[in-house]
Amino acid sequence: MKKQLTFILLSLLSITLFSQIEYGYERPKSSTDPWKFGITGGVSWDWINQQNGIQKKIGWRAGISGEKHLVYNIYFRPALNFVKKGFLCDIENNFKNDVNAYLVQAELNFELKFGNEYKGRGFLCYFAPFFSYGIGGKSTLTNQNPINPGNPNLPPENYMVPIEYSTFYEDRDKLKNLSFAKEDVGFILGVGYDINHNIELNFNYTLGFINIGAYNNFRWQNLNFSLTYFFSNGKRR
Predict the structure, then answer these.
(1) Residue 18 belongs to what H/E stretch?
(2) Neighbouring residues of 108: CB distance < 8 A, sequence distance ≥ 6
């Protein structure tokens, strides 16, 4: 009985002593590494989630990014980008719609980094919700239907004549459903590579959730390639 009691007491004492010892990241603690900030630039390949006559267009983005080491290999990287994107819808004997849009996009990226933390080098993956708001852009609609309902022997007056309109218009009814919704929310899935503590390459897929079309189910989609340069390495001195 005394041996059993002694064993129990020693076990409790050992648990108490070892519970006071921290082994690296044994206990999660918020990182004390400071924020770092930088600039981002890149290109995109944009389209919408329709098949009939949709052609992808090349766009671009530029903005600012921040990064904060949270815990373990988890990082928080918010970004604010100025975005240019669009698409082309070309349906033979019907119409051609050349869409160009300028937006401001806010992203809240959560990253997992793998690699050499000392050198700041290695692969990363991330997920981000985003919100974008349309601020401008001019698009064109061209009537490609050669049939004139009033006179079948003559083409319509606006046949093959591009009509320019504002991509994001305040009163969409006046443009007979041509313009697009300004707001969009969605998510971003991406991978990247840290070249060092200051330079980061990223490749991601973006999917919008909101129907931006007035008469059809149009949702933005794009692939993005970007480079971010941070002004500091984000490490304690």
Answers:
(1) helix 2-19
(2) 76, 78, 128, 129, 130
* Angular region, 72: left φ>0, alpha ψ -120 to 50, beta rest: left
Q: Which helix (H) or strand (E) holds 176?
A: none
- Look up the pTM and report it: 0.79
Q: pLDDT for 132-182, tens place per residue?
A: 999 999 999 898 888 877 777 777 778 888 888 889 876 555 555 567 889
At residue 114, what are phi and psi to the nearest 5 degrees?
Answer: -130, 135
Over the stretch 75-86, which tens digit does the pLDDT of each residue have? 999 999 999 999
As a residue count, the chain comes to: 237
Rounded Cα distance between 108 and 185, Å, is 12
Residue carrying structure tokens 């007979």: 176
